What does this fold into?
Amino acid sequence: MSENVPADSNAVPDPSGPSPSPDGAEWVTGVSATASEAAEAIAQAEDRLLRLAAEYDNYRKRTIREKAEAFDRGATALVTRLLDVLDDIDRLLASDPSTTTYESFRAAYGVVEKKLIKELESAGLERIDPVGAQFDPTQHEAVAAAEPETDEQDHTVKATFQAG
It folds into this structure.
């Protein structure tokens, strides 16, 4: 009987590889080759995992750094715009009180205030003046409580001591 021919004479011989020897040595070699391939695949997967983890860590650090840099650029831009307002305040304070009338000083102060408000609004800030609105503890800070004149005015902001 041939080595690759099974006991059944109608069966076709298996050309894929050698048939097992009586002691089974070929089977063991095939298993150890599969185990070494599996170990190599595991090592490659571990390497990919470590590289991916390092890449993610670098991405996380880079985004944190970029966010901080963007914040610094925004803060720098705002401060640069506010320096012009500070220069106006310095000029206003340097004016001679003996030659400056109260009305002209007050008008100059109003111009500087409008300029400051414009710069702050361009930065996304807005003044909150809640007089007449419902009291909201997440937005307002109560300094005192007053008896409402009518029931509809209960829990309503009556006055603002410091606008936010």
Notes: The first helix runs from residue 25 to 93. The chain has a mean pLDDT of 81. The chain has two domains: 25-126, 134-164.
